Structures are given as structure tokens and as C-alpha cells.
Amino acid sequence: MARNSILPKNGQIAFLAVAFLLTASAVAWLGWSAYEGPREASQNGQRNLRLGELSGTITHLDEVLTMSARMAASTGDLEVAGTLPQV
Fold first, then answer.
1. DSSP 8
2. CA gap 13, 18 in Å, rounded
3. Cα–chain-centroid distance for residue 23?
4. How far apart are CA 47 and CA 36, in angstroms?
5. Is 81 within 8 Å of 68 (Cβ atoms)?
6. CA separation for the pair 9, 62 (Å, rounded)
7. Displacement of CA 7 from its chain's centroid (Å)
8. Alpha carbon distance 71, 65 (integer Å)
9. Burial readout 11-49 (b: 16 or more C-beta within 10 A, e: otherwise)
10. What is the C-alpha separation between 9 and 7, in angstroms, rounded?
């Protein structure tokens, strides 16, 4: 008895199943990315703000230390370098 040619073959079913799984995975990944994107952007903004604050503090402390060293070098008084202002 001849097989009905309307029904797909086993290889075609497997191919369609794999194609469906890959498509479903891609759609799920895109959905998750759309869901998580704004939250990650907010966290990155907060992190960048904190890094900017820390960068300013580091720059200020560097300038204080540099000026103290310059004062000690110009006056020849090494105690000037040991008396850093409390910041």
C-alpha cells in the first residue's frame, strides 16, 4: 500500500520541530532582553553617577597631596608634608 504523500516525512517533522524550537528560543530571549533592558540601564546610570563622585574625590585628594609635597619641597620643611589637612 502506498503511503499518502500529503503527510510529511519523519525528516521534515524533525526539521520543523528544530526550527520551531529555535524560533521560540529567539523570541523568548528577545522578550527577556526587552524586559531587563530598562532595569540594567537604570543600574548603569546609578553606577556611573557613583563613579563620577568617586573620581572627583580622588582628584581632590590628589591635589591636596600634590600641594603638600610642593610646599614641603619649596620650603625645605619636611614637616609640612606630614601635616596634611584633614579632608
1. P
2. 9
3. 28
4. 17
5. yes
6. 74
7. 51
8. 10
9. eeeeeeeeeeeeeeeeeeeeeeeeeeeeeeeeeeeeeee
10. 7
Q: What are the domain boundaries of the chain?
A: 22-82
The label of the residue with cell 584633614 reads: 86
pLDDT digits (tens, 9 = 90+) for 11-47: 788 889 999 999 999 999 999 999 999 999 889 999 9
Overall pTM > 0.85: no
Picking from 12, 32, 34, the residue whose alpha carbon sits closest to that of residue 24 is 32
> Which among 87, 51, 53, 50 is positioned nearest to 68, based on CA atoms?
87
- Joined together, the cell numbers standing for residue 14 give 524533525
